[in-house]
Amino acid sequence: MDKIEGSVLRSPADVRGFADFDGPLYYVPTGFIDHADDPNTLPLAGSRRGFSALEIIRRRDGGGAESMILPLLALEGWVQNSGRVDEINNVLDHLTTKRPDFAGLDMASCHVMGIVNVTPDSFSDGGDYNSPDQAIVHARALAAQGASILDIGGESTRPGAETVSEADEIARVVPVIRALAEDGHCVSIDTRHAAVMEAAIEAGAAIINDVTGLEGDERSMEVAVTSGKPVMLMHMQGEPGTMQEKPHYDCVVLDVYDYLLDRIESCERAGIPRDRICVDPGIGFGKSLSHNLELLSRLAIFHGLGCSILLGTSRKSFIGKIDPAATPKERIGGSIASAINGWRHGVQMIRVHDVRETVQSISIATATSMV
């Protein structure tokens, strides 16, 4: 495992020390309990799952961050001492309130998004469904296996990927989107190009999924606002071609959180309401193994943004760094383990290649949590 850099350290400071801190604080639900009706818990984003404590994180002078665990039973006293009453009330509202429907999907459940790459060079399945006809057949199969959303992409964003012309990208995705939308499926367009977004929406795409958080094309924000479609904003450090060249963070969890908050606020100023925004921490996009594991261990922090959350870990290279012998298609076990971790943290949508296996695993996890 690579050196832990940009991580959160547990602080020896007492609760009072954090209460006296006058800088920004960040709040991570933890101490998860399956039944949110437990009197010592609060519901996680309106779900049946609850949390019994908050990990409170602050940045350290000179870099990095430190945290302390505060049981909810001690929260009222801490809030009074800290003078952060309004701040905590706002944070708790975001952490506990059920998200509005997203593209017509009930966010009380964890939905599976099926990946459909109409590309010759995607890291896991590039070339498997390279023609529109092959992609349509595959997408329909994923829907039959339980995918609530079909995510159609015509450009690989794997590390080191080459760019594709907008014309080629449009030619790849539009026939697929049109056929699936006519079937009545909920379709998202996975693109960072405004012209592709426009063509995809015209063909019937219901969601814009942009790995650049609507920053990769100067017209993307305008297209998103004008279309009225919900958007998925992902964090990525750098560009796909170079993003894995020594990524660095002061504190990866807080840096990603701050970036996504900034993008949400930019969208709101432009005219996209928060209930039309989903955030994605961007696992594997400009992040080392330790960065990815830090994010996965504190996914629940992103509920504090007040948006639904998308998680994409399927077959990614961080799994291969833990199990080097596994090829991308042999990373299903790690993909499912990280998906269940996302479910445990209250993530509302999970983007995967292996839909049937993921749907089954979430169904079993949900069923056992209800006993």
Automatic annotation (TrEMBL):
It is an enzyme of class 2 (transferase). InterPro entries: DHP_synth-like (IPR045031), DHP_synth_dom (IPR006390), Dihydropteroate_synth-like_sf (IPR011005), Pterin-binding_dom (IPR000489). Gene3D superfamilies: Dihydropteroate synthase-like (3.20.20.20). Keywords: Folate biosynthesis, Magnesium, Metal-binding, Transferase. Residues 110-363 form the Pterin-binding domain. It comes from the Bacteria. GO terms for molecular function: dihydropteroate synthase activity; metal ion binding. Its cofactor is Mg(2+). Belongs to the DHPS family. This is Dihydropteroate synthase.
